[in-house]
Amino acid sequence: MELLEIQNIEKYYGNKSNITKAINNISFKAKKGEFLAIMGASGSGKTTLLNCISTVDKVTSGHIFINNKDITKLRGNKLNKFRREELGFIFQDFNLLDTLAAYENIALALTINKVSAKEIDKKIMVVAKELEITEVLNKYPYEMSGGQKQRVASARALVTNPSLILADEPTGALDSKSARKLLEKFAFLNDELKSTILMVTHDSFTASYADRIIFIKDGEIFNELIRGEKDRKEFFNSIIDVITLLGGDVNNVI
What we know:
Layout: E1 2-15, E2 18-31, E3 35-40, H1 46-53, E4 61-66, E5 69-70, H2 76-86, E6 87-91, H3 102-112, H4 117-130, H5 146-158, E7 164-168, H6 176-192, E8 197-200, H7 204-207, E9 212-217, E10 220-226, H8 232-246, H9 250-253
Parallel strand pairs: 3-8, 3-9, 6-7, 7-8
Antiparallel strand pairs: 1-2, 1-4, 4-5, 9-10
Helix pairs in contact: 3-4, 3-5, 5-6
């Protein structure tokens, strides 16, 4: 079953005298329960693509369907409701509220959706156990490590049971140990809970946890890798091969 379908989207910035084409006729699909990564050099259009899918930005032309709903046609309260109920967001800088404890940060989206206190507590305890953050639920962000904060942010994204989880450089602010632990949790959520994840990353190691990778170059799809039966090390090596085709090494290309 297709959960996400991108149809010939384009995105322009600027005015008639100075137009920049950030996305050029991109189309692809993602199945329900898939873990999809988007990679590309700085300025390739990968973040613009994520912004369009997340409804933060609007496409200039084309259509984006999530659960067969054309989100490019949603406006106002309907768009806000869709964003609240169908999408989960995980950001590089966590975006936790410093004045709220972890429990309250996670509960916020449920509270806005007017979920009962009893149900909120039940949902939070389930997701906290899955992400191994029960011991920090009463702590404030400044009392937590980077890895703990990112797992709390992930719990906040998951607790509403969204159709699609959008992760923007989720390991970018983490050390290697915390990054590996978070990615293992992503893999668990994808394998065991069938969560659908779309992740933008510049990091080959992070991308190697995905089922499939779409490479973006100059606003267009450059290449695509499917993990299939490869183990993660083999898949990582395939990613490096594509990076080489893109014209440089890991550090200065992706």
